[in-house]
Amino acid sequence: MTAANASRGGRPLALVLGIQRPTLSADELAFFREANPYGLFLGRRNMKDPDQLRALCAAFREAVGRPDAPVLTDQEGGRVSHLDSGAWPMFRSFRSFGRLAEKDMAAAKRAIRLSSVAMGRMMREVGLNSACSPVLDLLLPGADLVIGERAFGGDPELVAALGREVVDGFLEVGLMPVMKHIPGHGRATEDSHKTRPVVTADAATLDATDFLPFARLRDTPWAMVSHVVYSAFDPDRPASVSPVITQEVIRGRLGFDGVLISDCVFMNSL
After folding, report:
1. What DSSP state is assigned to residue 130?
2. How high is the pLDDT of residue 6?
C-alpha cells in the first residue's frame, strides 16, 4: 500500500477517471497505484476489440488492487454506443423502443429487456461493469437535440416503464445500471456539453414530468447528475454542484438514496 493509500486507510478516492489510449502507460499504472481512484471510464478511443479491452480492464484493476473496481462506458444504444469499433454488435436507440411502446407496450418491454440482457452479457464478458444507462430524460418539443433519440419518449410513465426493464435486465446479468441525467435533462433547450442550460419550469411541472421517471426508479443503485440549472430550486448552480438539488430534490422529493456520480466534469456547463 502506498503512503497516499495508507493515509486514507486503503479507501479509494471518490473519482472515476479516463485515459487517452487503449493501453495503460507505465506512468498511468504508477499513478493509479498511488491515487487508487474508485473507477475508470472508457470511451471509444480506449476500446478496440474484446481481447484488448479485457486486458485493459484487468490492468487497471491490478493497478488499484481491487478486482471489483468499476470500469464504465457510455453504451446506451443508437448514437451513444462507445463499443462501435466493428468488433461488437450495434443496439437500437431507446427512442426506437419508445415508438414500439406507443403501439404495443408489452412487446416493447419484452424487446428492451432482451436487448438490455444481451448488451449486459456482452459488456460483462469484456470486463465492463456499467453502460451508464438508462436515459430517463424526456423527449420534449423545443428541447436541444443532445437527448433526442436517446430518450424513450415524452410520456414520463412510458419512460419509467421502459427504464425499469433496462435496470432489471442489467441487474439480471450483473451490470450496474446508472440512471441519467437526474433530475432530468430533457427539457433543456441547450446542450450542457457546450453551455449552461437553465430549466425555468416550476416545481409542480417538474414533479409531474421530468422528475417522475427518476422517482419511479428511485431504487436504481446509481444515478448520474446533470449539469443543468433548475431555477425553481437553485437559480445559480447546475444540479451536479448544487447542494439544494442534491439534498432537497434528488434525496428529498425524488427519494433517491443510492450512489450519485456527476456527468463529465469537462463539459462547458461547469
Report:
1. B
2. 46
Is 82 catalytic? The answer is no
pLDDT of residue 8: 53
Distance CA 245, CA 239 (A): 5
Between CA 230 and CA 89 the distance in angstroms is 37
Give phi and psi for 90, each to the nearest 5. -95, 150
Burial class (CB in 10 A: 0-12, 13-18, 19+), 21: exposed
| Catalytic residue, candidates 74, 144, 234, 263 | 263
The confidence score (pLDDT) of residue 267 equals 78
Kindly state the cell numbers that stand for 108: 416493447
- pLDDT < 50 positions in the chain: 1, 3, 6-7
Q: In what order do the strands lie in the sheet with 13-18?
A: 13-18, 37-41, 71-72
Contact 255, 218 (CB under 8 A): yes
Catalytic residue of the set 74, 193, 234, 257: 193
pLDDT of residue 9: 58
Q: Is 263 a catalytic residue?
A: yes
Architecture in CATH for domain 74-262: Alpha-Beta Barrel (3.20)
What distance in Å separates the CA atoms of residue 82 and residue 16, rounded to the nearest whole number? 17
Nearest to 31 by CA among 8, 54, 2, 55: 2
222-225 and 178-182: which strand pairing?
parallel
| Rounded Cα distance, 74 and 131, in Å | 5
Which cell numbers hold the place of 217? 426508479
pTM of the model: 0.94
The dihedral over CA atoms of 242, 245, 247, 249, expressed in degrees to the nearest 10, equals 180
